[in-house]
TrEMBL record:
Coiled-coil regions listed in the entry: none
Family indicated by similarity: Belongs to the DNA polymerase HolA subunit family.
Key word Secreted present: no
PANTHER family in alphabetical order: DNA POLYMERASE III SUBUNIT DELTA
SUPFAM superfamilies the record matches: P-loop containing nucleoside triphosphate hydrolases, post-AAA+ oligomerization domain-like
Gene3D superfamilies the UniProt entry points to: 1.10.8.60, 1.20.272.10, P-loop containing nucleotide triphosphate hydrolases
Listed EC numbers: 2.7.7.7
InterPro entries: DNA_pol3_clamp-load_cplx_C (IPR008921), DNA_pol3_delta-like_C (IPR048466), DNA_pol3_delta_N (IPR010372), DNA_polIII_delta (IPR005790), P-loop_NTPase (IPR027417)
A GO MF term: DNA binding
Gene Ontology CC, one term: DNA polymerase III complex
Protein name, UniProt field: DNA polymerase III subunit delta
Location of the DNA polymerase III delta N-terminal domain: 20-143
GO biological process, any: DNA-templated DNA replication
Amino acid sequence: MIDIFTFNENIKKNIIDNCYLFCGIDEQLMKDGINSIINKVIDKNFMDLNYVKFDGSLLESFDPVINACETLPFMSDKKVVLVYRANFFQDDKNDSNLKKVYEYIPKLPNSCILIFYDVFKSKRDKPGKNIYKLDKKLCVVKADKIKGQQLETKIKGFFEAKGKQIGKVELRAFSSLMNENNLSIIENEIEKLCCYTCNESISKEDIKELFLKNNDDDIFDLINPISQKNVKESVEVLNELIYRGEKIPYILNMIERQFNRLFRVRLLLENKKSKQDIMKELNIRSDYACDIIIGQSKRFTLKQLKRALQLCLDAEQKIKSSTINQKTEIELLIINTITG
């Protein structure tokens, strides 16, 4: 039994088995894996002739699957036969199709790639004895997204293969940003980071600079000196944003949005909520981004954050209803927030 990363590595190296069984709770991950096989072996011009699908949940007999496998491919070396949602592999099933699968797999012609996938009902479900028994006859792929320590270990291996070392803290920060379990995407991001750092060691700042440079990160950069009571640096970051073409109302809106998030985080922390609770509540996907937000929120009291939000609302009203200098107004907002 292999994980989805190993499967993707094999496909990239053109190591393709004759028969697969994907199992797990992530059906989309299975479909992506199956498509990677199909794209490797079937010409899209003959897709309809060389790709046959069966709904495993409705399959009364395995004979039509066998017939499809035995039919030669058209204008191609390979054809693919897919049996999707093949729930007859589950241990609580006593299905005659399962016996026929055991008997037929050794007879499968080289011209056909037979693929099954079985979607588990819940995260608690594990591959049962039927699947483990099949593991000796075909390639079983555990199609669940790899997270946490397992993901970090895989990613560390990719860095080491490129002769690049990465520290534990940096590895955790990088891994938390890799939401895709797509080997090619992750390898491209690793290559990008290795090229960016050249012969230097990888730092969290490198990761932030390369992967978090978006509008949210600009606001992180502005809120940081505000939270540190640094008027000069705050105004410098503001001027940089204006120089880059950001409009004052937009900057104000983003500041207000960030203070609102900080207020919510601070409130959750006051109520003894965990980091995982905060990520779920605010829909934050990255551990690293969550660490930044939590760190910023701890530099303010709830009273200060309430006042900052009120100052934002007051500034918004003034900018909308008068001809005052918008830049001066937002500078005053920053100063009043720091001195409040």
